[in-house]
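Title: Prediction job returns without error message
Component: structure pipeline
Severity: low
Priority: P3
Assignee: unassigned

Description:
Job completed but the reporter wants confirmation the result is attached to the right record. Sequence as submitted:
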Amino acid sequence: MKSLTLAAALAVVAAPAFAKDEIFLGWQGGSREQLMREKIIPKFEQLYPVKVSYVAAVSTKLLARLRAQRTNQDIDVVLMDDGPMYQAGAEGLCSPSTPKYSSDLYSVANMNVAKAVGIGVVATGIEYNTKTFASKGWAPPKSWKDLEDPKFKGQLGLLSISNTYGLHTLMMMSAANKGSAPGYDAGFKALQEKVSPNVQAFVETSGNLSAAFQSGEISIAVNSNGRTQALAKTGFPVAFVYPTEGAVATIVGACAVQKPNVNKYSVELIKFLLTPEVQALMAENEGLSPVNKTTKLSAETAKDLPNGEKAMSELVVPDWMQLNKDRNNLARRWAREVERKR
């Protein structure tokens, strides 16, 4: 009995020497979670003695969780779209230990002011059903102003301003009509008078837009190139357009969450996400344009993405520090003038 007890005690003492650290990574669910769980996390765990557990939630939910758990964070690394990420940085939720922007990355990845770094980019533009357009003899859209064309009445799907792509729509409808920040008056006027009458539905997520395309409810929408690419992979006849006035960059940022003791593997995970191999995986599977300049993409993948110095420099990059200050007022005005006036 004594020998068994001693053996058990030795086992308990020895166990921590072989135990792995555990860190928690927060990002979106769906195909992005699948990519992380199946292709990226296993590679990282082969390199380091750490277990990565995944927390699936959209950016706004992750931001709310970080705020609620400020004094006792359970997430170690968070990936969020640029708007919420800049809010997190401004509120001290991101750690200074997060890897900083460096010269081997495109400038769009510079989120140092938020104590974050960009790990990938998607572009917001116009997507359309190629089969429907061909059957009606419509030319592919070229400009943001094409959304004003009355022939699209009942054919247009738009994301509400609660979604980043809805805010991008307001920005670019303003630019296309010679307006600008901070009020975006020209954009509100165009949306209220010309665009809103064409809208079949305002929806909350890109998934809702894809479903509306597939059901035949809409034939044109504002969305990201990555979401369009994912829908096209299902065999659906859809294409993405970079409008003449510019497509808007949505930067997926990463930061090590601020806590008394930031796990060293949190920092290593973010560095790993910036390696050319992982950058290529995110491009091929999720339509995220690489921010690492040395990433090599197949011709098939590269043709669907803003890729390279020139393409990246042509994207419209929002001023999120100002937009986040104005966003509540813009949302109230949108509800009053755009959606409620339908």
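Comment from assignee: result matches the submitted record. The first strand starts at residue 21 and ends at 27.
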